[in-house]
Amino acid sequence: MSGPLAGVSADPPLRSGDEPAEASLIRNTIFSRYTNILLAFVPLGLAAGAFSQPAVAVFALNFLAIVPLAPLITLSIDELLSGVGHNFGKLMKPTSGNLVEMIVGITALAHGKPLVARSSLLGSILAYALLFLGSNFFVAGYDKKEVTFEKTVTNTLSSWAMVVSFSLIVPTVVSVTSHRTDAHGRAPRDIQALSHAISIVLIITFVVYLKVRTWFLDTNANRDHDATHENCQRAPGANSRSRAGLRAAAFVLFCAMLSAILCASHLIGSIDSLAKVLGTNETFISLVLIPPISYSARCFNTIALARGHRMDTVIRFIIHSILQLTTLLIPLMVLLGWLFKEPFSLDFGLFQATVFFTSIFTMSSITQHGKSNYFYGIMLIGTYILVAVAFHIRPGVWEEFVLPGLDRRRIAHGLYSIESTTGEFGGFEFFKAAPTCSA
After folding, report:
1. Residue 422 pLDDT
2. In this structure, are residues 327 and 203 in contact, taking their beta carbons and an 8 Å threshold?
3. Conformation bin of residue 268: beta by default, left when phi > 0, alpha when psi is -120 to 50
4. pLDDT digit string (tens) for 68-104?
């Protein structure tokens, strides 16, 4: 088979009606990548979650299980899209690379953890803009004076990323400046409505972006997506796919999706206990530890491209991934939360919104000149490490207790409740001066 599902297999083409061909294609797909050896962790992770093993074991095993499932899902979707029509396949193919982030986000929403869903997506954006870009700058330029890349398209994409990031933090700015949260720290209805409106607009712009990408960036964009996502190329002259190949792709996709959903469910369910064991907060786990599930399999491919003097491809892939997250997945999570009556607003909180916007601004500033060096990479990697440490030492309780409004009345009410129940808190005169809010 000559499609991406076949990976690096050198098997000759098989007849579409030959039943052994399907088994051969599935086998070749599973054994086509070295990372697929981690598929052995799928039953281990599911068993650990089913039998209530320690949180560290459940999280680690299911984390390792999802890592190889991400490229399998992407390969299978790309293969199926190749059989549904050339134009439609080109239009939808760029969206297939972030399906694991969507699975994790929806699973977190199903577990009643919208903060985890939002933080995991934000963590992926920060990783792409700082860690991912910095690592490739360092690898591409550590033995060179300067690394150059085409800046026209890069500047266009990074400028759009800046506009989108500003749109996403508008609800946070409104919440901070109006000092408005409800008694339970949730965004009020007008912030939710604003989030819904922004999400709809961003999804529309994403659809337009896909159309523009198909019209004007056809050759380069599709080549970049194939090379960076899966490190496998479509064989020359392959214009059609056998029915056996499509059936094999559908079977692999079903199994990989089901496994990813089950593993993600156990992984999300272990976060509370894991935070207590590690002495950290849920925000750090969801923002720093969960995102590598999706992008770790792509690291080696992009690093190889960076060393091969293809920084244009790498940078466009990074910005494309960020745009998919900001204009499709985050808005989609907001609308799904609206549909399932699970509040999911774009009120990130003052600290997260600041880090998010600053990271996108830094990425845009560094890429606008069309040249870089290894020192830029070190700075970006160091910035990501500092951000990760900041989220680790920042008490997670304040993320829920004092949301961006920093309402003094809510602080007073909380501290007054502590004093009235434990009798261990004093020095309360400043807060008592403000009227308390209702529970």
Report:
1. 45
2. yes
3. alpha
4. 888 888 887 877 777 665 555 555 666 666 788 889 9
Q: Which residues pair with 61 in a beta bridge?
A: none
Let me know how long the chain is.
439
Q: Please tell me the distance from the alpha carbon of residue 198 to that of residue 124, in angstroms, as a whole number.
A: 20
Indicate whether 351 pLDDT > 60. Answer: yes
State the Cα–Cα distance between residues 199 and 191, nearest whole angstrom. 12
Q: Where do the domains of the chain lie? A: 4-406, 410-439
Cα separation, 224 vs 213, in Å, equals 12
Q: Is 73 helix (H, G, I), strand (E, B) or coil?
A: helix
Lowest-pLDDT choice from 203-212, 390-399, 421-430: 421-430
Q: Measuring CA to CA, how many Å separate 398 from each of 232, 296, 350?
A: 45, 30, 11
Summarised one tens digit per residue, pLDDT across range 231-241 is: 444 444 444 44
- Integer Cα distance of 30 and 7 in angstroms: 9
The dihedral region occupied by 97, where left means phi > 0, alpha psi between -120 and 50, and beta the remainder, is: alpha
Q: Answer whether 202's CB lies under 8 Å from 327's CB.
A: yes
Q: Given this model, what pLDDT does residue 130 score?
A: 92
Contacts of 291-294 with C-beta under 8 Å, sequence gap 24+, read 291/101, 291/120, 291/123, 291/124, 291/126, 291/127, 292/63, 292/67, 292/127, 293/63, 293/66, 293/67, 293/70, 293/100, 293/104, 294/70, 294/98, 294/100, 294/101, 294/104, 294/124
User: Coil, strand or helix: which one is 147?
Assistant: strand
Which residue in the block uniquely carries the two structure tokens 């720093």? 288
- Longest CA–CA span in the chain (Å) reads 82
Q: Which of 55-69, 210-224, 420-434 has the lowest mean pLDDT?
A: 420-434
Rounded CA gap, 46 and 429, in Å? 53
Q: Could you please state the CATH topology (level 3) that the domain comprising 4-406 is classified under.
A: A middle domain of Talin 1 (1.20.1420)
- Report how far residue 413's alpha carbon sits from residue 153's, in angstroms, rounded to the nearest whole number: 52
